[in-house]
Input
Amino acid sequence: MDTTMKLPGTDAELVAEAATREQISRWMDGDIAPNEIELAMATLSREEGRYCWAEMHFVGDCIRGVEHAPPSGCADRIRSAIATEPAILAPAGKRLRQDREIKERGLFSAMTSMGRGGRAWATAAAVAAVGFVGTVVYKDQVAAPQVASAPTNPSVGFASAAPAANAKGNAEFNAYLQAHQENADVSSLSPMRQYLRPAVIVQAQ
Amino acid sequence: MSDRLVDQELVERVQAGDKRAFDLLVLKYQRKVQRLVSRFVRDSGEVDDVVQEAFIKAYRALPTFRGDAAFYTWIYRIAINCAKNYLASPGRRIVPMSDLISDDDDDAESFDRNEGLHDVATPDAEYASKQIGETVNRAMAALPEDLRTAVTLREIEGLSYEEIAEAMDCPIGTVRSRIFRAREAIATELRPLLGTRDDRRW
Output
C-alpha cells in the first residue's frame, strides 16, 4: 500500500473516488455515452480527475512499452504555456463533423433531424438551386440556335472561308456542337465560346 | 465511441474555447510525441522544448484542424516539423542516424532498444526507467489471469470493450471492471516511484 499518498477521510469518499476512477478508465477507452460527456469533462477538469486521466494513460503507455521514464513535468509546462494563449473560439470542427454526418446519413434523415426550421431552409435552398440551374439551361437554349446558324453569318470567318466542299463537314460539326451544348455543362464553357470559331478555321484549313 | 472520436470530442471542445480539453490531449499524447521527437533530437532537455513547441503550435493551429485525419497523426506531423526546424536552426546540426546507434550495435533491431530518451538519459533517469519497467512487468505478472488478459487485449491489441467481451465470453460490464482493476493494480505499484500525489508532475 502506498503510504505516501493522501487518502480520503471516509469510506464513502473512497467508494466515490473508486467509482470516478472506474468511469475515467472506461472514458479514456471511448466507452462513453453521449449524455455522459458533460459529466466526464466536469470530472476531468478537477485536479483529481486530471491526475487519474494522466496516471491511467501512463499505465497504458508503460504496458505498451511506449515509456518507462518517470514523468518529467512536460505536460505541466505545456499547460502553463497554453494558459497564456488566447482561448480558441472556432467551432468549425463540430460544424464540419456535422456536415460529414449529414452526408453520411443521407439528405432525408438529415432533414428529419434538422426539425421544422431546418427543413424550411433546406427546401428554400433546393428551390434556389433548381431556379439557378433552370436559368442557366434556358439561357443556353436561347443561345444554341445562334451557333447552329453561325455558318450562314458572313461576319464569321468559318462561313466565309469554307468552300462548298466543306459544307458537309460544317454541318456535321455544327450538329456535334449543338449536341454538345444540349448535353454538356455548357455554362462552364460560356466564357470560352468566343474561341471556338478560330479553332474551327484552323481545322478547316 | 472509438478512441479517435474521444480525441475528436476533445478537439472540438478546444475549438470552442475549452483549454482543459487540450490539457487532456497533452496528457494523453505527450509521451508518444516525446518518443517521436527523441528520434531527431538527442538531448532530453531539448526534446522537452521541442515537444512543448509542437503542442503550442498545434494549439494555435487547431482552428484549422478539420478532423479529416486523426489528431495523433496531425500532432505527430507537427512534432516532426518542429524537430526538423529545431535541428536546422543556426548552431544546430542534424544528427545522422549512424550517430544515434552506438558502435557495438550493428543490427537494425538494436536501434529500437537504444533510441530516444534512453540514449541520453542520466544514470538516475535510466535507473528510474528500469525500475518502472520492472515494476510494470512484475505487476502484470501478478495480475489474475482474467484481468491480465482483459488489459492486454485493450492496451496492446487495441480491442474495443465489445470485442473483448466477445473474446472473453463475458458481459461488457465485467470487461470494464477487469480493465479498471488491472490498471489500478499497476498504478498502485507505480505510485511510489512517481512521487507522492502532493508532488504530482506530468
About this structure: The longest helix of chain A spans residues 107-148. Chain A touches chain B through 61 residues (CB under 8 Å). The CA atoms of residues 26 and 32 of chain A lie 7 Å apart. The radius of gyration of chain A is 35 Å.
